[in-house]
Design brief:
With 331 residues, the chain is α/β, with parallel strands linked by helices. It has 13 helices and nine strands. The protein binds (2S)-2-hydroxy-2-methyl-3-oxobutanoic acid.
């Protein structure tokens, strides 16, 4: 009788342990390959969250927009309606849902990281976070895709004139207008289809950040020329569905928040490190790199001004002004 009672108690204890050891697995979607800093940032979030919650939560990372049928622009909307728990994506991918998100990547909004951080790590992003919240997405932290640089297979690009007739793959609607302003032929395409399109010569070029995407996705294997024109900056954010967030108690929310803040700080750091070392690496790999002079950058800035104006109107003058003020304060 005693023995039975003891073994029942042991059984009950182990059952309780089994229940508490069973983690809730959250699904995180992102839209680039699993060799990128996006993936590393997402994995870091999962590790930190699991550690901070004593294993109550873990994160399964799905790259290449697999969970949205390869559609990188659809992820935000899916998180918004609770079909995905978490997303790491860049601002430009959210512009179909929230046009105001184009403010970051307006051509030549920023010229350095201090200016970037003055917005993404400060108050300027709060109105955007409020809009995303109203669409069902709680932004936990901002990361970095980075300054988007041009690669192509036709010729060195040193001036707007060199862009004439170049077939360039772009990610989103604003970049169509920017490329048109430069006289190029833009083609909007999913990132998941772009590497094949470059390989097969369907397009001549593309533009993406060096540390976060160009190097880890080995774009240098299929592109000869790189121009570091820094024409547009693209941040990442780590977002959680509001439905999920609102179901967490305050203590757990704080743990999610800490894990996200730390993971995106790490992701920004490794993206910047990869970019700093990147030009030398790309030259070693055989790319011909052109680094425009300040005067040449002014020429690109002037040529892209019509697209800036069109998209500044879509974003709204108050938001653009608040970003410009934050940028000015960083100087
Ligand atoms: O598609 C792109 O170019 C990428 C990976 O940078 C974005 O998600 C915007």
């Amino acid at each position: 009788m005693t023995i039975t009672r003891i073994s029942f108690a042991a059984l009950a204890a182990s059952a309780i342990m089994a229940i508490s050891a069973q983690a809730e697995t959250l699904r995180l979607s992102h839209n680039v390959g699993d060799t990128t800093t996006w993936q590393q940032g997402a994995e870091k979030f999962g590790e930190l969250l699991s550690a901070k919650t004593d294993g109550a939560y873990d994160v399964r990372v799905f790259p290449n927009a697999q969970l949205s049928g390869g559609d990188q622009m659809k992820q935000a909307e899916m998180v918004g309606r609770g079909a995905l728990d978490l997303v790491v994506t860049s601002a430009i991918n959210v512009t179909p849902l929230v046009p105001e998100m184009a403010v970051f990547s307006l051509p030549y909004m920023y010229s350095d990281y201090a200016q970037v951080d003055a917005t993404t790590q400060g108050e300027a992003v709060k109105p955007l976070e409020a809009i995303l919240d109203s669409k069902g997405i709680k932004v936990l932290a901002w990361g970095e895709n980075g300054f988007r640089e041009l690669t192509n297979n036709k010729q060195p690009v040193k001036s707007p004139a060199d862009m004439k007739g170049l077939n360039v793959r772009v990610a989103g609607p604003m970049y169509i207008d920017v490329m048109n302003a430069l006289g190029a032929n833009p083609q909007q395409m999913q990132w998941s289809e772009t590497l094949t399109a470059l390989q097969q010569g369907v397009v001549d070029g593309q533009e993406n950040p060096i540390g976060a995407v160009i190097i880890p996705q080995q774009v240098y294997e299929m592109q000869k020329y790189l121009t570091t024109w820094h024409y547009s900056y693209d941040p990442l954010f780590l977002g959680i569905s509001k439905a999920k967030w609102d179901g967490l108690d305050a203590d757990t929310q704080a743990k999610f928040q800490e894990a996200a803040t730390e993971a995106m700080a790490f992701q920004r750091q490794i993206s910047r490190e990869g970019t700093d070392k990147g030009v030398a690496f790309l030259k070693e790999k055989g790319m011909e790199v052109y680094e425009p002079t300040p005067e040449e950058l002014v020429a690109f800035r002037e040529a892209t001004k019509p697209a800036f104006d069109t998209w500044a109107a879509k974003v709204g003058p108050d938001l653009v002004k608040s970003f410009q003020d934050a940028v000015a304060s960083a100087q």
